[in-house]
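job 3f2a | input accepted
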Amino acid sequence: MKTPSIYYIMWRFTKGGVELSINHYINHFWRQYDLNAYSLRTADQKIYDDQKIKTTAGKENNWKVYFDYFAYCRKNKEGLFHLLNGGPIILILTILAGVKNPIYHIRGTIYWDNNFQEMYLKAAWLLVRLLHSFRKVVFIANSQHSADIFRKKVLAVNPLVIYNGIAVAPFIAKRYQRTVLHRIGYAGRLHDGKNVELVIQLFETIAGEYPDMELHLAGDGPLHQSLRNQIDKSRYADRIFMHGFVDDMPSFYASLDLLLFLSAYESFGNVLAEALLTGLPTLTSDIPVFNEIYGGENDFTLGNPSYYETLHKRFIEAVATFPQLADKAMRVSYQVEKKFNIDQHLAQFEKIYANH
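job 3f2a | predicted structure (356 res):
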C-alpha cells in the first residue's frame, strides 16, 4: 500500500514561530506519512531534518513563484496540502491545480496594508469562495480571535479552531515562583507592530528607581539596528542587552522575572503561552486572543499600545504589586499547560489527516 503524502506549504523557511512549529508535525507524523515541505520563496536556513522530510524551495521572482508552485501542485495533486497561510492567490493556484480539499491554516489577522491591496485581495477571496463551492477547503484557525477576524473581514466561513500546540515539558521543567523583580525581558521578532521600542521606554521609566534592574531582548528582525540605536542613546544602555536569536527559550524565560509583550496584533502569541508555562508573569497589550490565553484574567493587560500614558500607568501599578502578579502567573501557568499541550494539538490534526 502506497504511503500517503503530506505537503506543508510556507512562504519561506526561516527560524520563525510558524516555520519551526512544523517540526512538531514532522516528529509526530514522519513514520505514518511521506512528508514534504515547500518554501514559496528561497529558503533562509535549513530548519528541518532531511531524513524525515523532503524539502523544496522556490524563487524570489513573483511570477516564477506562482508558476513553480502550480507545477508542484499538479505533480503532487493526490497528496494532502497543508497551507500555513500564504494568501488567496496561493490557495487559488492550489485548487486550480487539482489538489483535493486543501487545508488552509489561518495564523494571522492582517490581510492587507492599504486600500489597493484590500481591493484586489478581496476580489481574490471572492474567487476562493466560488471555487470552495466546487472543491471544499478545510479552514482552520489558531484562535477564536483569528477565526472571527477571518470570517468578518475575509471570507464568510466558520473555521475550525485548533490552538497552537506547545511542547510543554521543556517549559514546565523551568517553572518556578518569582519573588523579586530584577530582570525584565522581551521575546519575539524585532518587527513593526511588536512595539519593542515601547518595552525599552517602559524599562527606562523605572530603571532609575531600580539600579540593579536589567532588560533582556531575545529575537532578531529588520528593526534590530534602529532598536540598537535607541538603546545606545539610553542613559541605561549598560543594563539593556540584545541577545539575537535564542535557541534555548525555556532557559531564557527562566532567567527573567517579568516579560513585556506589547504587540499591536497577534493571531495567537506563542511567546506569551511559553513564558507563562515557566510561571513567568507576562504583561501584554489588549489583543483579544491574549484574553483567550489568560482565560479572562485582566491584571496582566496594560492596554492599547497607541495610548502610552495608560500603558505606563498600568505598568507602574503592575511593578508595584509584583508578588501578587507572580502568584497569579503561577496559577495561569497550569491552565496554559492543559489548554495548549502539543499532544492535544497533534491529536486533532491526526483525525483531520486520517479523514482527509
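job 3f2a | The two ends are 17 Å apart (CA to CA).
job 3f2a | closed
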